[in-house]
Amino acid sequence: MPERSIVRYSSRRFEACGDGSEGENTLRKGPVTETGHTKYRAPALEKGLDILQLLNDEHAPLTVSAICQRLERSQGEIFRMVQVLQARGFIEQDPKTDGYRLTDLLFSMAMRQPATQNLVELAIPVMRSLANEIGQSCHLALHTRGDIVVIARMESMEQVGFTVRVGYRHSITKTVSGLILFAFQPEDIRAAWLAMVDDKPSPGEVKKFVAAADLARQNGYARAPSTVVNGITDISAPIKRGDRAIAALTVPYIKTTYAQGPITAVADKIKAAANSIGSQLIEGDSRG
Predict the structure, then answer these.
(1) What number of other Cβ atoms are within 10 A of residue 73's Cβ?
(2) Residues 140, 120: contact at Cβ < 8 Å?
């Protein structure tokens, strides 16, 4: 029998192997890292992921030309990727600027993960009870790449209040939710989170943030004026699994005639609610 050929596409980093597995493409091995792990390359996938990460980091839509410029790629490379991502629903075009932005598809996919679903399902009844008891809204936040992201909220039944929408993101260093999440992490995780923050704080700001986190860890909660809205005092307590905070339960406290009790009493109730959610998570772990 004639020897089967192996067709190599070195520029694409994969091989079509004719060694008994005809028609099956296998990724070509890339360089070996210092730790001994082999890296694989998938250039087309990497370009798509680069586009998603870029749009995630931008506050305004970007045109194809702007994406090409930022990623230092050609128009031909990026145009097809953008069209596929749009067709699959990951990005959408802004009719006013012709720029592209992320849809909420990735966020929706993350929200459907069992761990997140279970957390939200357990938290919602507790959050509803808390909001009714204190006459304030509350929300649940997680950490994601140096930011906090709000994954659930509960409005109070009062006629006046303040709420934060689901999907809201902001730097951990500029939010009380981020402060409380940071407070209940080991040193290596803290360092990793700070390295992910896009708007890099100065050494002095980092020192102040870490000191505030250490104090919050001692107190079991954090409280500070909102950096976004004047007149709001954000109060946050950790929802813990073990000794780490996996989420933050936060109340944007606004002083009204509907507010139930002084702000110190509200802080105690937020801590109790966060502990209740955390204890249910631990019970669920033990049953599993």
Answers:
(1) 16
(2) yes
Residues 55 and 188 in one domain: no
CA-angle at 283, arms to 278 and 288, nearest 5°: 125
| 264, part of any domain | yes
How far, in Å, CA of 235 to CA of 221, rounded? 7
Considering the domain architecture, whether residues 120 and 252 belong to the same structural domain is answered as yes
pTM over 0.90, yes/no:
no
259 phi and psi angles, rounded to 5 deg:
-60, 135
Tell me the Ramachandran region of residue 100: left when phi exceeds 0, alpha when psi lies from -120 to 50, beta otherwise: beta
* Per-residue pLDDT tens over the stretch 128-173: 999 999 989 999 999 988 899 899 999 887 766 688 888 888 999 9
- Helix, coil or strand: residue 200: coil
Q: DSSP assignment, residue 86?
A: H
SS3 17: coil
Do residues 58 and 49 make contact, with C-beta atoms less than 8 angstroms apart?
A: no
Q: Which domain holds residue 88?
A: 43-103
CA distance 21 to 117: 41
